[in-house]
Amino acid sequence: MNIISKVRCFGAASACVLVFATGAWASSASQREYKRGYADCAAGRWDDNQHGASYKEGCRAAENKRDAGAAATEPTKAAPAEKPFIDAAVPGRDRQACVRAVKSKTHNPKVAIIGAVSSEAANTVTLGVGPDRAPWRCLVKRGKVSDVMSQTNEGAM
Fold first, then answer.
1. What are the tens digits of pLDDT across the range 96-138?
2. Which residues, 6+ apart, have CB-to-CB distance to 112 below 8 Å?
3. Cα–Cα distance between 154 and 133 in angstroms, integer?
4. Could you give the C-alpha distances from 65 to 44, 55, 153, in angstroms and in order?
């Protein structure tokens, strides 16, 4: 698709104005945001508050597809292990501080890092505890843990 729809010149050749097809450009930018939102949410990393409507629509589509796929999966079959998303910006000392904190809180030595996301306020490390990898969340910055919390819906138990 051609982005430039018209070239208009007024007087001298140096006074030309390019008129862009803004509708096509906006649609293209919107599609890119949708695809970026879809890819981010499919990989488990997103922040709805930092993005526009197209990004959020893409994110919702990825979540819906993931939820539909999870409902169709037989409960007796184990899902293939996904590679965890671990943001390289989260320092190793923060990840290890969270592992120690979760081991201490749960009294369970079997703790695995499921994911890590960097943020200016605090890094979020998601950990799996025990053989079923029950999810736990840890907030940490500069090796100091500020919060450790189970992500299991205990009200449904």
1. 999 999 999 999 999 999 999 998 889 999 999 999 899 999 9
2. 127, 128, 133
3. 15
4. 13, 16, 22
